[in-house]
Specification:
- The protein contains 18 helices and 20 strands.
- α2 packs antiparallel against α3, α8 runs antiparallel to α11 and α14 (317-331) runs parallel beside α15 (354-362).
- The protein is an alpha+beta fold.
Amino acid sequence: MLTLDLEEFFPSVNFGRVRGFSLKNRSFELQPKVATIVAQIACFQNALPQGAPSSPIISNLVAHVLDIRLGKLAATTKCTYSRYADDLTFSTNQKEFPASLAYESTGAPGGWVLADPLLTEIQRAGFTVHSAKTRMQRRPSHQIVTGLTVNEKVNVRAVYYRAARAMCDSLFKTGRYFRGALSSKTLPPPTPPIREDGIAYLEGVMAHIYHVKHTSDIRSRRLDPKKEAEDAKQLRYPGYRELFKKLLYFKHFVALDRPLIVCEGKTDNIYLRSAFKALDPKYPGLAEVDKGKLVTKVKLLRHSRAEHDILELSGGSGNLGNLVARYGKSISRYAYRPLKHPVIVLIDNDSSSDPVFGALKQQKVTVSHITSDSFYFVCFNLYVVKTPELPPKGISCIENLFDATILRKKLDGKTLSLAKAYDSKTEYSKFEFADKVIRANFSTVDFGGFVPLLDRIVAVLKDYVKRRGS
């Protein structure tokens, strides 16, 4: 595997190249004045600045011609070409590396000299090779590309993963960690070590590890259907996934910076945010509107990919039931648990919430559709709140809090369906209702029906203050 670096990659993409590309590229063909303004915005001191979010995108656009030419050159030599910013790699399974790309020379830096065809194509594209960084990595060696090992499969380096585990362990025990808190078997830490009290840096590290390892595991199992079937469970619960899950659990439930509300789905989040905004300033403890912008004092758990795949909170009462049932055991795993704010699981008071009811009964908490407690305390900082009971049997869902006239509102001639399965020709979904009816028209929607529910949330906040004694 031949790796080489381009010298002064971002600075070599100067103002003239950015402007010229914007003028001549068929996908853009900007007017001269527009191309000049774009180049002025993108460049600093006549070059793409290192660290600007626009620089990698623009440099990749300009370097696309380089990728095309080197890709063709690699194909003729039975090699695979890849580039990440200024790092270029040519790899092959041949016994001898193609001399038309590079050849051995004892007097050259790294022992290898780049061949003229390769150098010519790089220079034609307007770039220069950093000769001191050229190196050849053979099969028995530790092959690394852009910080990832690629010998058998793409993977993060062992030292990187060990460092992440050490930082997580410190965070879970003390609430802080040092960036690069590595053991003697790994790379030395920065000097002086950087102390981190927040989770953002470590979350980024673990997200990177999860993405690389999980993607590689899926790819390797797809190549072998038998292995995919045999190892399906192991793929779902490998060690790196469990570590990432423990970190996200710590972030959302243990070291939260404000009260957290966990709803059954995305639509509930939209309803609540709209209610907060419409009912301002009646609930100053929940949210306030500042210059037309909603500032929430409670957090609504996002139903993003991480929450779906890692925390297994994809929505629905089944996931919430598991959360309630396992919460006490999960929180007990952390030596450091500030638990400054409550976690509120908000559920519909109907048959779909039976898993949560079952989990509550396992915790010796009395609950049913007709019980009318403002909230149900589970353990540590966890509470469950139901939608207010409606006669005659108490059954209700969050959509029942809206006035009947808004529920009858039509969209493009279609009526609202609260069911998961609906006829798209004559009906529209709950998400469309939340997005196009409630969020889009919150200022004209009557949120009076939400007052009892918000009162219950406020009651939880007050109760938790008493329980903590502050």
